Protein backbone atom coordinates (compact mmCIF):
# COMPACT_ATOMS: atom_id res chain seq x y z
CA UNK A 1 0.00 0.00 0.00
CA UNK A 2 1.46 3.32 -1.08
CA UNK A 3 1.26 6.73 0.52
CA UNK A 4 -1.65 7.68 -1.73
CA UNK A 5 -4.69 6.16 -3.36
CA UNK A 6 -4.99 7.06 -7.04
CA UNK A 7 -7.27 5.79 -9.81
CA UNK A 8 -8.03 6.70 -13.41
CA UNK A 9 -11.45 7.36 -14.89
CA UNK A 10 -12.90 7.85 -18.36
CA UNK A 11 -14.87 10.86 -17.07
CA UNK A 12 -13.76 14.43 -17.71
CA UNK A 13 -12.41 16.38 -14.73
CA UNK A 14 -15.72 18.23 -14.33
CA UNK A 15 -17.76 15.02 -14.64
CA UNK A 16 -15.53 13.28 -12.12
CA UNK A 17 -15.83 16.15 -9.63
CA UNK A 18 -19.64 16.16 -9.91
CA UNK A 19 -19.84 12.38 -9.51
CA UNK A 20 -17.40 12.47 -6.61
CA UNK A 21 -19.44 15.10 -4.77
CA UNK A 22 -22.50 12.84 -4.98
CA UNK A 23 -20.54 9.74 -4.00
CA UNK A 24 -19.08 11.55 -0.99
CA UNK A 25 -22.51 12.84 0.05
CA UNK A 26 -23.84 9.27 0.06
CA UNK A 27 -21.08 8.42 2.56
CA UNK A 28 -21.83 11.44 4.79
CA UNK A 29 -18.86 13.51 3.62
CA UNK A 30 -19.39 17.09 2.60
CA UNK A 31 -17.26 19.09 0.20
CA UNK A 32 -16.23 22.16 2.17
CA UNK A 33 -14.28 23.79 -0.60
CA UNK A 34 -13.36 23.25 -4.24
CA UNK A 35 -10.19 24.84 -5.55
CA UNK A 36 -9.75 25.27 -9.28
CA UNK A 37 -5.96 25.26 -9.19
CA UNK A 38 -5.72 26.00 -12.92
CA UNK A 39 -7.80 29.17 -12.71
CA UNK A 40 -6.08 30.27 -9.49
CA UNK A 41 -2.58 29.95 -10.94
CA UNK A 42 -3.58 31.58 -14.22
CA UNK A 43 -5.11 34.50 -12.31
CA UNK A 44 -1.70 34.97 -10.70
CA UNK A 45 -0.01 35.11 -14.12
CA UNK A 46 1.25 31.53 -14.11
CA UNK A 47 1.11 29.55 -17.39
CA UNK A 48 -0.47 26.44 -15.80
CA UNK A 49 -2.94 24.86 -18.22
CA UNK A 50 -3.55 21.39 -16.78
CA UNK A 51 -7.14 20.99 -15.52
CA UNK A 52 -6.63 20.46 -11.77
CA UNK A 53 -9.20 20.59 -8.95
CA UNK A 54 -8.68 20.02 -5.25
CA UNK A 55 -11.64 19.14 -3.03
CA UNK A 56 -11.49 19.53 0.72
CA UNK A 57 -13.88 17.02 2.29
CA UNK A 58 -15.04 16.25 5.80
CA UNK A 59 -17.30 13.97 7.78
CA UNK A 60 -18.30 16.10 10.80
CA UNK A 61 -18.75 13.18 13.21
CA UNK A 62 -15.38 11.66 12.40
CA UNK A 63 -13.65 15.06 12.53
CA UNK A 64 -15.18 15.79 15.93
CA UNK A 65 -14.03 12.43 17.27
CA UNK A 66 -10.41 12.73 16.20
CA UNK A 67 -10.06 16.42 17.09
CA UNK A 68 -11.49 15.76 20.54
CA UNK A 69 -8.94 13.00 20.99
CA UNK A 70 -5.92 14.86 19.57
CA UNK A 71 -5.94 18.51 18.50
CA UNK A 72 -2.95 17.94 16.23
CA UNK A 73 -5.19 16.02 13.82
CA UNK A 74 -6.30 19.44 12.60
CA UNK A 75 -2.98 19.64 10.77
CA UNK A 76 -4.41 17.08 8.32
CA UNK A 77 -8.01 18.27 8.13
CA UNK A 78 -10.00 18.52 6.04
CA UNK A 79 -9.11 15.54 3.85
CA UNK A 80 -8.04 16.43 0.32
CA UNK A 81 -8.94 14.72 -2.93
CA UNK A 82 -7.36 15.87 -6.19
CA UNK A 83 -9.02 15.45 -9.60
CA UNK A 84 -6.85 16.31 -12.56
CA UNK A 85 -6.02 15.65 -16.18
CA UNK A 86 -2.92 13.58 -16.80
CA UNK A 87 -1.58 12.06 -20.01
CA UNK A 88 -4.91 12.41 -21.79
CA UNK A 89 -7.05 10.95 -19.00
CA UNK A 90 -8.54 11.95 -15.67
CA UNK A 91 -7.04 10.95 -12.35
CA UNK A 92 -8.60 11.00 -8.87
CA UNK A 93 -6.32 10.66 -5.87
CA UNK A 94 -5.73 11.39 -2.22
CA UNK A 95 -3.10 10.95 0.47
CA UNK A 96 -4.00 8.01 2.70
CA UNK A 97 -5.52 9.23 6.00
CA UNK A 98 -4.05 6.22 7.81
CA UNK A 99 -0.52 7.26 6.91
CA UNK A 100 -1.11 10.91 7.79
CA UNK A 101 -2.50 9.94 11.20
CA UNK A 102 0.46 7.62 11.82
CA UNK A 103 2.69 10.70 11.70
CA UNK A 104 1.22 11.74 15.06
CA UNK A 105 2.24 8.48 16.75
CA UNK A 106 -1.19 8.19 18.42
CA UNK A 107 -2.40 4.60 18.02
CA UNK A 108 -5.83 5.48 19.42
CA UNK A 109 -6.66 7.26 16.14
CA UNK A 110 -5.86 4.31 13.86
CA UNK A 111 -9.36 2.85 13.79
CA UNK A 112 -11.02 6.14 12.88
CA UNK A 113 -8.40 6.89 10.23
CA UNK A 114 -8.97 3.45 8.68
CA UNK A 115 -12.74 3.99 8.68
CA UNK A 116 -12.35 7.39 6.99
CA UNK A 117 -9.88 6.02 4.47
CA UNK A 118 -12.15 3.10 3.57
CA UNK A 119 -15.11 5.45 3.06
CA UNK A 120 -13.08 7.80 0.85
CA UNK A 121 -11.66 4.93 -1.20
CA UNK A 122 -15.21 3.61 -1.69
CA UNK A 123 -16.39 7.09 -2.76
CA UNK A 124 -13.56 7.35 -5.29
CA UNK A 125 -14.06 3.80 -6.55
CA UNK A 126 -17.76 4.49 -7.15
CA UNK A 127 -16.77 7.29 -9.54
CA UNK A 128 -14.20 5.50 -11.67
What topology does this entry show?
Blueprint: E1 4-9, H1 13-26, E2 30-36, H2 37-43, E3 52-58, H3 60-69, E4 79-86, E5 89-95, H4 97-102, H5 110-127
Antiparallel strand pairs: 1-5, 2-3, 3-4, 4-5
What radius of gyration results from the CA coordinates?
15 Å
Q: Any low-confidence stretches, pLDDT <50, length ≥5? A: none
Mean of residue pLDDT values: 96
- Identify the CATH homologous superfamily: TT1751-like domain
The secondary structure category is alpha+beta
Helical percent range? 40-55%
Helix-strand pattern, N to C?
A: EHEHEHEEHH
Could you explain how this protein is built, in words?
This protein is α+β, with helices and mostly antiparallel strands and 128 residues long. It has one domain (4-127): TT1751-like domain (TATA-Binding Protein, 2-Layer Sandwich), CATH 3.30.310. The protein contains five helices and five strands. It has helices at residues 13-26, 37-43, 60-69, 97-102, 110-127; strands spanning 4-9, 30-36, 52-58, 79-86, 89-95. Strands 1-5-4-3-2 form a five-stranded antiparallel sheet. Helix 1 (13-26) packs across helix 5 (110-127). It is globular.
Short summary:
By secondary structure, the protein is of the alpha+beta class. It is built from five helices and five strands.
List keywords for this structure.
single chain; 128 residues; TATA-Binding Protein; five-stranded antiparallel sheet; alpha+beta
